[in-house]
Amino acid sequence: MALPTSQALLKDKQIASPTYAIELPSSKPIIFMNPNAQTRHFPLNKSTFAVRSNKALLSIGKAFKFGPSDIGFEGQSRSYGRGNSLGGLVVKAAATAEKPRKNYPGEAKGFVEEMRFVAMKLHTRDVAKEGKKEPDAQPIGKWEPTIEGYLKFLVDSKVVYDTLEDVVQKATYPAYAEFRNTGLERSEKLAKDLEWFRQQGHIIPEPSSPGLSYSKHLQELSEKDPPAFLCHFYNVYFAHTAGGRMIGRKVAEKILDGRELEFYKWEEDLTTLLNRVREKINLVAEGWSREEKNHCLEETEKSFDYSGKLLRLIIS
Ligand code: HEM
């Protein structure tokens, strides 16, 4: 029996990948590729990630004011009445009809909201009202930080921020470049703080295992698993602006005479900076399949494990 040619295989693939047709009232349908069909290959290779994060591609959907779920992610069809941006166009899923699925928690607001939802559940109930975990045996309010422990935390945090900031500078995957110069960078700030401690006569420790192993994990993910890498990117920067700041204030009151370190200062309005990064993550995630999004969300727990080990250095 003759083996199928590559063209024949390709043809089969096209048939297997449903397409979505937008029927214009009087002209031929415009064919849009099924977003699922774009994201068959997992984990992503560098070039597909680049293509899928391409704003021009994403703007195709945006111009018509629909995102992946609107163009029939679930195979449902939707019609838009007169007077809206589609002017009476009917968007039809040519794929086999499947039951519409429920939104993931936070999905309607964008992928970052999904990430936030997962992260909040991993908090202990005593620190955040959305938290689902039992309070720690040693709640933060009862922490007895030491300068030595805090310095270890700052040094190891710098190793982690150095890694994140280096990854986006190198941008092995072009989409990482979106996250350069966000204004959230912490590496230089930490360098200033450590220099200040040195000038006060403190010995700056060498990086230790929690920071080094987290850095290694981030490095590896950045090379082979962009959705998981971005999960850490989000959690590290956003956690620092929330719980991280709170912890910083408590530690400063106890051992630094209330001095606010550079680590907890941002050059611009923090809400604006965070919103900008939220938008960018949302945009990149628009190019991910549901499977990739879930994979990203599943990494949240590891992010908590690694960051939790860093935080515990404060009381070591
Ligand atoms: C003892 C440690 C921690 C405390 C006290 C803490 C506390 C908080 C608090 C109070 C919030 C704000 C809740 C709100 O917006 O209503 C928050 C948000 C958040 N935390 Fe934590 N947290 C801690 C550890 C962590 C860790 C280890 C991570 C992950 C690495 C993390 C990730 C986040 C994220 C992603 C948010 C949402 C930020 C946003 O929406 O802007 N937190 N945390």
Automatic annotation (TrEMBL):
GO terms for molecular function: heme oxygenase (decyclizing) activity; metal ion binding. Coiled coil: none annotated. Keywords: Chloroplast, Heme, Iron, Metal-binding, Oxidoreductase, Photosynthesis, Plastid, Transit peptide. GO terms for biological process: heme oxidation; photosynthesis; phytochromobilin biosynthetic process. The keyword Plastid applies. One of its GO terms (cellular component) is chloroplast. Pfam families: Heme_oxygenase (PF01126). It is found in: Plastid, Chloroplast. Its EC number is 1.14.14.18. Its main location: plastid. Belongs to the heme oxygenase family. This is heme oxygenase (biliverdin-producing). It comes from Pinus taeda (Loblolly pine). The gene is HO1.
